[in-house]
Structures are given as structure tokens and as C-alpha cells.
Task: inverse folding
């Protein structure tokens, strides 16, 4: 492995004046003796889409899961550093984990609807939050499905099993499920990698629309996707966040050789 | 024949033949088991022809109306009317000693509600048309016996029966045996078995699921958890009678005895809780089946897709909410599999029950219309115990043995029935989850 990049990952003044949704400073993460993240600094601005790119195994998903603390579920996972969600320490002792996860929603690579009806899936988080009134539940479910661009397709199938939907619909359903609890941030872990091109297109339109109200951190392997939907892009390699800039700059004029090589597909596999 | 076949193919053929032989041996053994049970059960219920016997021996001349259970060229094995028997229900009679042998068409077999049989000659119609309130006196060897018309449950002119009628009578008797209450029927034992198994299921399932949840979701894989897992797996192979002994000491004497002292203040002269009973038996069986339940539930939990767990957590579910709302519902078929295994293991157990509550004769049903309806502290009858009891300690030799087989057949049917219903429920759940995953 080459020496760490000498330049700071983020050009000074880039995010000045912007409210930050997520922030990681000096974040290191170990799985047992294996270091997955090494002193990562990342800032995710509010109401923007930030893409996280980099070769497989570079720590993108691990970084993502620090923000909703899903890494806590892994027994031998150790985290050092500062993680903030809207300025508040995400690893504070008095913090309520369910509360944090309601504010920081997540969409996974593989569509993972529960084996329940479409509406039950969307209502899941609401019920957890203690919402019982039927009419309000129905309203919120509809609003979430509309926001995920799925309402027109499933309005007559709300009672049907979610597993009968197509993969693209399932992925939008789990987005609706995440949106229903009205999070402030959405973490997306390669959410379009299992979708066909048409569904991917719809998904990308959705992400662009979501940016009106949500801050999105999107892990993707699809360079075109990052270029199409993201305002900012961060490039990671081998557990380090090497470069962060506007998507435009990253794709047209990256400061690092490694970033350029990866984007243009020149990165050799063994450097992963 | 095998000239074209190469060696490996021949070897595979040998394996096939061995497998086929093994399968057919198993099937034959099963068929033989069923055949023995059926044939022996039939012996218990088939109406035997009634013969009029007269013979002479040192004590003088005898005359006897008796059912002929078996005969060959030299010997008849007969059972006299219950009235005429004194200790020896069965008698071997040498044909050579017989002065007279006939099968009178007017021989009647009367059966009383308590299971006793009376053989006599007369008109079927006049006995059938008896007023239930009418009192009559039947002649018996021990003197005259008062009987009411209502006590007569069966009047059959056995010698006049056609083949189908014999079958019908036998089946009717079998049904009466299975359904009858009191000393003559198995209903109490049937109910006792079913209630016991259900109570056991109600006790073991929550406990087993909780233990499995703890082991799989909370305990991790440290030394303690590994040791516990090994201990549980080993518990599954402890002989059941040891559980019975354990139940006797812990539940009956320990908890039951303390309860008696607690409730009555002193050690009651007649223990109420401090003796074998339904609850203690169910608890003992629950302990016995706990390892099976824990192991199969844990396997079911391991098969729940991790994506679903993460999705629930990411939506703000606590660990408990995730388990309760996502993991357990998805693992439901596995829970039923665990229940099926537990029922299969528990329904046929006899040895531990003999120590903690099953009895030959219980005066009341474990479940009846009297408050509190389910009588947890009562001793109860059990089909498996009935088999043991009839086969080994019965007073009426061959007939009891035949009835033991009938009881065994019923037990088999109960176990199959309980299992089948659980399997039906599981398959329905699976279908639903398949629909959901379609």
C-alpha cells in the first residue's frame, strides 16, 4: 500500500456555511484485528446527496453503518473517533439507539421487505415509534409510498405480500419504509446494485427528488450513478477517505491519481 | 446379464439393492407391528362363539356355558360367563373329557356397563326390549346379582351372527372400549394423555423458545454458551426414567410438599400437591422435551435472513422488538417443528409418568365440568401407562393382553393425530410464508 495521501481529503472552505447532517472525525474501526476504517474524516451536508465511492472492501459500508450504529451488532467491532449526527455525538452514552436510528434511516443493498403486507411493511417503523391510530397510520403509509414513488403502483395491493412486488418495487418499498418514520438522513448501501436498468433509473430520479427534504449518503459502485445523482462525492480506498469534493470536480478534475484511476476504471484489482 | 455393465455400475447397483432391502425391511417391520396390534386388538373385541359344554372329571359332572376363544383337535380354551368364573377366567377343556358340546343358537352374550359379561340362553328380543328401570336378578355362581335394565349395554346372540354382524359388533365394542368412561373404557386415559401432552406443550414452548432466544441472540459464542449448548444436547439423551425420578424429587416432594405445608400449615395427612399429579407430570415431560425444543428452535432462528434483522434494527427496533416482531414470526414454522418433535417424544413416554402421577384408575377426569375444570393436582390415567398396566398387572390374562394391544393402537393413533395436526398447521404456515415470499 502506498503512503497516505499528503493532501487533506477535503479542499478548505468547500462546505463553509452549510449545515452538516453527518460528520465523522478521526474515525477508526476495527473488526477484531482487522482495520476497516483508518482515521476517516467525512462531512455530509444537509439536504444534499453525497456519494461514497471506492473499490470493494474499502470500508464504505462500515463507514455508513457508523452513522446509525448498526456496527454495534457486530461483536468484535471497535470504534474510535468522533461521529456526529446534526452536531450531536452519535456514540454518547445517554443516547437512545432507536431514536438515533429513526433519525438516520437506512436502505440496504438487497431489498429486504418483511414477509408481511405492503402497508404493514411501511407501517413497521411507525408502530415501533408507538403510533396506533389507524387513520393516521394509513395517511403516513400513503405519504411515505408517494414520497418513494410507489403509491400509484401499489395503491390497490396494500394488503398483498410485499414479497410479491418486483425487485425494483421492493427497493422503493423499503425506501418508503425508511421514509415513513421521517428520518433526517438516509443511508443507502448500494441500493441499486440488484436492480434492472429501468428500475435503476426510477430509483435515481427518486434519490434526486429526496434531496429536497433529506440528506442522503449513498454508497455506490456505479460511477455514472454517482455522477448523475450526487452533489458531493467522497472517494475511499483501503479504509481511508482520500478525496472529497463536489461531484463535478471529482469526475472531471480529481486531485489524486488514485481517484482518477478508479473513476476511469484503471485501478488494478490487487489494490483493493 | 451384467456382461456390459462396468464395475462401478455394478457396485452402485449393489448399493441400490441394499438400500431397497433396508427400506422394505423397515416397511415390513412397521406393517408387522400394525398387524400384530390390529390382530390382537381384534381378539379383545371379536364376539366369540358360545358353547354349551358338559364334561366329567374326578369332581363329577360339570355343565358350563362358555365363550370359545380358541380350539384345536384336543383342547378348547374357554372363558366362562363372568358369573361362573371364580378366579380362573380361562379354562382348558380336553375334548376327550367332553360329554356334550354344542353351539346353541339361542345363546346370548349380555354385557353390562361395567364391562362384565354374562352368558345365558334366551330370546334376544325379550332382553333387548327390557325397560331400563326394571330390576332383575341374574343367576351367578356367587349368588344372585341384582341388575337394572339400564345396566345392559349389549345383547348379542353370538352364535347367530353373520360375518359382517360379527365385525360390526366387534367394532362397536372397540368404540365402546375407546370411548367408555369408568373402569371399562379408555376415554379417561385418552383424555389424560391428550390433556397431559397439551399442558406439556404449553409449558415447554415458551420456556424452550426463551432459552433458544437467549442462546442464539444474546449468549454469543463464549465458553459459557458453548458449555450450555453441549449440556442441552446431552440432556436430550438422558433416559426418560431419570427425568421421572428428578420430577418426583423436585416437583412432587419438593415443590408439591412445600405447597402443602404452605397452604395447610402442616404436613397434611393426605397430601394434595405433594403426590403425583397432572401438573407435575406435565412439568416433568416439559423438562424431558426441553432440549429437543431448544435445539430445533435455535436452528430455526439461525435460518432467519440477517437482512431482515438489520432492517428491523435500522428502523429503530430494539433487540427485543426485532426478535418479537420479525425474527419469531419468520421462524414460526421452525417453532412448530420443535413442537412436533416435543409431542412425538412426550406422547409415548410412560416410565417417568409412573413416578409422577399416572395411575391405573383415577376416579375423575382431569378435565371436566367441575370447577376449576382442569384438575392440575389430580392423578390421571394415561394410555401408555394403561398398556403397561394391562399387559403386566392385569388379572384377566389373555384378554387383558389383547386389550393392551388395543390400548397401544389407540395410543399410536393419538400420537399420530397430535403430530398430524401440528404438521397440518406448520404446512399451512409454510404455505403462507411461501405465498409471502412468492
Result:
Amino acid at each position: 500500500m502506498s503512503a497516505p495521501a499528503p493532501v487533506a481529503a477535503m479542499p478548505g472552505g468547500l462546505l463553509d456555511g452549510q449545515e452538516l447532517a453527518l460528520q465523522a472525525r478521526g474515525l477508526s474501526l476495527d473488526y477484531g484485528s482487522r482495520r476497516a476504517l483508518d482515521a476517516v474524516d467525512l462531512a455530509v451536508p444537509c439536504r444534499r446527496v453525497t456519494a461514497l465511492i471506492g473499490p470493494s472492501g474499502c470500508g464504505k459500508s462500515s463507514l455508513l453503518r457508523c452513522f446509525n450504529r448498526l456496527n454495534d451488532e457486530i461483536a468484535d467491532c471497535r470504534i474510535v473517533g468522533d461521529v456526529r449526527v446534526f452536531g450531536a455525538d452519535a456514540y454518547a452514552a445517554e443516547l437512545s439507539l432507536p431514536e438515533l436510528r429513526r433519525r438516520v434511516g437506512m436502505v440496504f443493498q438487497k431489498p429486504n421487505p418483511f414477509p408481511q403486507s405492503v402497508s404493514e411493511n411501511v407501517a413497521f417503523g411507525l408502530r415501533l415509534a408507538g403510533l396506533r391510530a389507524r387513520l393516521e397510520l394509513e395517511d403516513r403509509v400513503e405519504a411515505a409510498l408517494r414520497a418513494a414513488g410507489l403509491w400509484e403502483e401499489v395503491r390497490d395491493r396494500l394488503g398483498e405480500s410485499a414479497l410479491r412486488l418486483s425487485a425494483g418495487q421492493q427497493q422503493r418499498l423499503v425506501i418508503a419504509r425508511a421514509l415513513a418514520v421521517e428520518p433526517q438522513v438516509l443511508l443507502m448501501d448500494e441500493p441499486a446494485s440488484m436492480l434492472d436498468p429501468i428500475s435503476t433509473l426510477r430509483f435515481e430520479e427518486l434519490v434526486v427528488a429526496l434531496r429536497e427534504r433529506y440528506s442522503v449518503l449513498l454508497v455506490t459502485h456505479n460511477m455514472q450513478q454517482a455522477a448523475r445523482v450526487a452533489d458531493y462525492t467522497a472517494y475511499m480506498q483501503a479504509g481511508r477517505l482520500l478525496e472529497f469534493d463536489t461531484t463535478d470536480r471529482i469526475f472531471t478534475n480529481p486531485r489524486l491519481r488514485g481517484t482518477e484511476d478508479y473513476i476511469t476504471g484503471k485501478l488494478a484489482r490487487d489494490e483493493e | 446379464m451384467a456382461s456390459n455393465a462396468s464395475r462401478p455400475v455394478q457396485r452402485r447397483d449393489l448399493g441400490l439393492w441394499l438400500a431397497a432391502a433396508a427400506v422394505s425391511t423397515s416397511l415390513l417391520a412397521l406393517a408387522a407391528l400394525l398387524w400384530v396390534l390390529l390382530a390382537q386388538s381384534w381378539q379383545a373385541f371379536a364376539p366369540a362363539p358360545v358353547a354349551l359344554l358338559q364334561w366329567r372329571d374326578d369332581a363329577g359332572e360339570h355343565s358350563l356355558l362358555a365363550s370359545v376363544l380358541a380350539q384345536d383337535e384336543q383342547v378348547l380354551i374357554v372363558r366362562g360367563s363372568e358369573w361362573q368364573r371364580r378366579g380362573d377366567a380361562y379354562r382348558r377343556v380336553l375334548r376327550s373329557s367332553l360329554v356334550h358340546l354344542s353351539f346353541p343358537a339361542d345363546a346370548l352374550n349380555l354385557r353390562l356397563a361395567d364391562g362384565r359379561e354374562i352368558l345365558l340362553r334366551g330370546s334376544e328380543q325379550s332382553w333387548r326390549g327390557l325397560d331400563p328401570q326394571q330390576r332383575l336378578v341374574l343367576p351367578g355362581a356367587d349368588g344372585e346379582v341384582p341388575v337394572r335394565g339400564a345396566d345392559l349395554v349389549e345383547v348379542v346372540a353370538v352364535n347367530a351372527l353373520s360375518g359382517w354382524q360379527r365385525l360390526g359388533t366387534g367394532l362397536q365394542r372397540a368404540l365402546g372400549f375407546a370411548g367408555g368412561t369408568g373402569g371399562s373404557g379408555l376415554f379417561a386415559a385418552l383424555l389424560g394423555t391428550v390433556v397431559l401432552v397439551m399442558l406439556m406443550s404449553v409449558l415447554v414452548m415458551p420456556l424452550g423458545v426463551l432459552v433458544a432466544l437467549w442462546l442464539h441472540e444474546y449468549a454469543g459464542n463464549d465458553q459459557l454458551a458453548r458449555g450450555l449448548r453441549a449440556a442441552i444436547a446431552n440432556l436430550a439423551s438422558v433416559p426418560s426414567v431419570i427425568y421421572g425420578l428428578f420430577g418426583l424429587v423436585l416437583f412432587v416432594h419438593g415443590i408439591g410438599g412445600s405447597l402443602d405445608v404452605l397452604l395447610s400449615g402442616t404436613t397434611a395427612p393426605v397430601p394434595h400437591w405433594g403426590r403425583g399429579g397432572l401438573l407435575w407430570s406435565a412439568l416433568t415431560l416439559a423438562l424431558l422435551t426441553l432440549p429437543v425444543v431448544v435445539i430445533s428452535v435455535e436452528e430455526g432462528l439461525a435460518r432467519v435472513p440477517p437482512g431482515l434483522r438489520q432492517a428491523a434494527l435500522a428502523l429503530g427496533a430494539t433487540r427485543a422488538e426485532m426478535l418479537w416482531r420479525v425474527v419469531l414470526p419468520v421462524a414460526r414454522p421452525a417453532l412448530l417443528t420443535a413442537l412436533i418433535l416435543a409431542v412425538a417424544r412426550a406422547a409415548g413416554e410412560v416410565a417417568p409418568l409412573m413416578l409422577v402421577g399416572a395411575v391405573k384408575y383415577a376416579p375423575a377426569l382431569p378435565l371436566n365440568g367441575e370447577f376449576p375444570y382442569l384438575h392440575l393436582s389430580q392423578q390421571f390415567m394415561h394410555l401408555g401407562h394403561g398398556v403397561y398396566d394391562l399387559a403386566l398387572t392385569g388379572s384377566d390374562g389373555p384378554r387383558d393382553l389383547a386389550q393392551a394391544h388395543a390400548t397401544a393402537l389407540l395410543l399410536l393413533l393419538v400420537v399420530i393425530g397430535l403430530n398430524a395436526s401440528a404438521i397440518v398447521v406448520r404446512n399451512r404456515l409454510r404455505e403462507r410464508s411461501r405465498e409471502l415470499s412468492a
User: Anything to note?
Assistant: The two ends of chain A are 10 Å apart (CA to CA). The domain at 20-113+183-271 of chain A is CATH 3.40.50.300 (Rossmann fold).
